[in-house]
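Issue 218. Parser rejects a valid record. Input:
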Amino acid sequence: MSYDVYGIGNALVDIQVQVTDSLVEQVGFAKGIMTLVDEETQAKVISVVGETPLNRCAGGSAANTIIGVADFGGVSAYVGKVATDALGEFFLTDMRRIGVAIEVAPGQGQTGTCVVLITEDAQRTMLTNLGVSATISADDVDEYEIKKAKYIYVEGYLFTDESTKGAALRAIELAKKYDVKVALTVSDPFLIDICRDEFWKLIEGPVDLLFCNELEAKSLTGHDDPIDCAQEIHKHTDNVALTLGKNGSILMHEGQVIPIEGVSVDEVDTTGAGDMYAAGILYGITNGLTWKQSGHLASHAAGRIVSQLGARLENRFTPEEIQELMN
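Output the parser choked on:
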């Protein structure tokens, strides 16, 4: 079987809960960003939440995108490390139920988790304990599986640790060996300060498609105008997908600026919006859609995610809906 997209990232079980701004202040974390924490800290936060219902699903940035590709009807695979515990089994079962191929030997320890605190303004504050997901290495990357893909999709969070970075670079190396295209998401604005030189090296080298948001693009390029940012990045890589939140997105392809409209929705939770946007783009360009059509699908998919709780589509797009969007 060939794959449309083969993803690599931190395999996490997302634990999502709706909270108040005052609770976020009470637990003492910066609102709207991702913070690495230990298991004890996560447990304390969950205890503060009390009896508020929790939603659980397989997650992690790249995993969300790969699941999204499968939800659109694409064929996808994923490499990420979980443990031989109940949460690890839950992650694998959840991914495989959706149709994502994942064949990485579990490790010893604790499966990574991400507690997502969702406030009334739809912002998400993420408290992440990487667990054994941080032990994924180059040895876990299957050369034969990458050879079968049209695109690989690499999560920028992997570049915060030498082992996980080694896995990402090995996947990119193998992709280039077999003429498989490489998509990279820089994942989070805080990563730019840590990995700026590394990201630029990849953008100027093996990366065929870069995903970033407006803050990340401005930090990367030093420009203020999003179009200037997109054009600057496009000087160094073939394709750019730059998201602008409610204002839509900008695609760069073959020297052309392709503006994509935003979709107006009542925001409930922004968790996974960028991940689902990437899924729409990657599904489209690997399944015969134009870049404009792919952006149109991606924008509507991100809008649908924002209007619900969690990073998983509650209502998948039917083939008829996708065709209607294309028309």
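Fixed in the parser; the record now loads. The domain at 3-10+60-82+131-326 is CATH 3.40.1190.20 (UDP-N-acetylmuramoyl-L-alanine:D-glutamate ligase).
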